[in-house]
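Dear colleagues,

As part of the handover before I leave the project, I'm documenting each prediction I ran so the next person doesn't have to rerun anything. This entry is a single chain, and its sequence is reproduced below.
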Amino acid sequence: MSTIAENIARVRARISQAALAAGRDPARVGLLAVSKTRPAADLREAHAAGLQDFGENYLQEALDKQAQLQDLPLVWHFIGPIQSNKTRAIASHFDWVHSVDRLKIAERLAGQRPPARPPLNVCLQVNVSDEASKSGCQPGEVPALARAIAALPGLRLRGLMSIPAPCDDPAGQRQAFARLRQLLEQLPPELELDTLSMGMSQDLEAAIAEGASWVRIGTALFGARHHA
C-alpha cells in the first residue's frame, strides 16, 4: 500500500510531465484532492504532504470534516450536485463551487454568501458529453448563463467545469476537454475567466493537454474509494 504522500508525489509528477509535454507551466495546473468518503485523518495526511485544496461532494460529510480540520488552512471546493436547500451552507462554508449548473442556484449562493467573506469562486458546470444522467448546463446555454452569473454580487465566476463521459481513448478524452476549452475561449474577455476544472485520475494528461487549470483527483491520491 502506497502512502498518501507517495501517491501525491506520483500524481504531481504526472501533472508536471503532462504540462511540460503540452508546453505549459506545471505551476498553472492545480491539484484538487477529491476527498469525498475519506476520513478527516486522510485529509490531514494529504495536507502534511503539501496539499491544501480539497473537493467534497456531500455537504454534511464535508461540514463534519471542516469542523474536525479547522486548525488547518485548507481551501474547500464543493464539486457535487447542488440542491436548493443546501445553498446557504455551501455559500457559508466553501471557497469554491465547481458545480453551478443553473442561474437559480447561482442567485441563491450569491444572496447567501456572508458579506464578511470574499466572493465565492464559482465554475459553471457544462454537460459536454450530452449524458442524460449528468448534471451540467447545455453548451448552448453557456454564454447567457456565464454573463448572468458574472453579474451577481458575492460571486466571482472563474470559468467552466465538466465531467465528460468515461472514455479510454486519449483522442476521445481530448475531444471532450477541447469542447470545454473552446466554450471558455468564446466567452467575452471582459469576464476575465481563468479556470478550466476538468480531468480526473484516469484522464488528467488529456485534460492538461487541453488547458485544465484544476484536475480533480481522488483514486490516484487516496486509493480505491471507501463507500460511505
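The chain has a mean pLDDT of 95. The beta strands are 30-34, 53-56, 75-78, 96-100, 120-125, 155-161, 195-197, 214-217.

All the best with the project,
I.
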